[in-house]
Automatic annotation (TrEMBL):
The UniProt record lists the keyword Mitochondrion: no
Record Pfam families: Gpr1_Fun34_YaaH (PF01184)
Coiled-coil spans in chain: none
TM spans (from-to): 72-92, 104-124, 130-155, 167-187, 193-212, 224-242
Compartments, record wording: Membrane
UniProt-listed InterPro entries: AceTr, Gpr1/Fun34/SatP-like
GO molecular function, one term: acetate transmembrane transporter activity
Protein name: Uncharacterized protein
Family per similarity comment: Belongs to the acetate uptake transporter (AceTr) (TC 2.A.96) family.
Length: 264
């Protein structure tokens, strides 16, 4: 090691480190081969940190979790991808099916309840991003499923179909704004990571416009975009569970190039 790092204190192991919070403002690198990562005023070896990866829904550098159990993000991504894929096909009017009521079960229990529980598990893992995303979208799916349950009387409360379309449009606009805020946290992550939120956000806004204008073409377009978003979710799910021990191939993270000042 060169002399410029001779006075560097050796980082402690990941088991002794407190979780790195996402409000750190600067990430720089040092060492002959950029083997050190400097986050704020803390220095770590690269191999002691988890990098941005869709398979763990981790948008930046964090310490390895102390929890010895499995990767809950893979389950959360599976819930999201499966439910979004089915909903996208309905909105795209695939096979002439226009009513999404048959997906109430998967929306409430798989995309909703199970995804929400996956978010709670990520809370215990210290993954704030995954916790926020999974619990939020899990709640979205439960809400969407409940809207389509006739006994709840949510849709029947609107006697004017135009008012119903506008109300559903407002509902989707709110989720589009939330998704956009989450999207801004993925610009330093990986390409599949960012593409998932770009397509999901686009889908929310296009479908909101479809409901508020009554455009069938926009409705179909929004459904197609949701299917693409679901495929990104499936990519992340496979990336989160595939290893060299259970698969002949693993998926690359495909990191987005970052611009930073190199500190030596």
């Amino acid at each position: 090691m060169s002399s410029d790092n001779s006075d560097t204190q050796k980082p402690t192991t990941s088991q002794d480190e407190a979780p790195i919070h996402h409000d750190i403002k600067s990430v720089t690198y040092s060492g002959d081969g950029d083997e050190f990562v400097i986050i704020g005023d803390q220095k770590y070896y690269r191999h002691e940190l988890m990098q941005a990866f869709l398979g763990t829904l981790n948008p930046g550098y964090t310490t390895y979790t102390k929890n010895p159990f499995g990767n809950a993000s893979a389950l959360g991504l599976a819930c999201f991808a499966s439910t979004t894929f089915v909903l996208g096909l309905f909105y795209a009017h695939a096979k002439g099916i226009k009513q999404p009521n048959v997906m109430v079960g998967i929306a409430v229990f798989y995309g909703g309840l199970v995804e929400f529980l996956a978010g709670c598990y990520e809370f215990m893992n210290g993954n704030t991003f995954a916790y926020t995303v999974f619990c939020s979208y899990g709640s979205f799916w439960i809400t969407l499923g409940c809207i389509n349950v006739p006994s709840f009387g949510i849709i029947s409360a609107y006697e004017d179909p135009v008012m119903l379309g506008n109300a559903l449009g407002f509902f989707l606009l709110g989720w589009g704004l939330f998704t956009f805020m989450m999207l801004t946290l993925t610009v330093k992550a990986t390409l599949p990571f960012m593409l998932l939120f770009v397509t999901l956000d686009t889908g929310f806004f296009v479908l909101a416009g479809a409901y508020m204008t009554g455009s069938v073409g926009a409705m179909k377009s929004g459904g197609i975009v949701l299917v693409i978003s679901a495929c990104c979710g499936f990519y992340g799910m496979i990336a989160g569970v595939a290893t060299k021990y259970n698969s002949y191939f693993t998926l690359n993270a495909l990191p987005i190039p970052q611009y930073h000042k190199k500190e030596t």
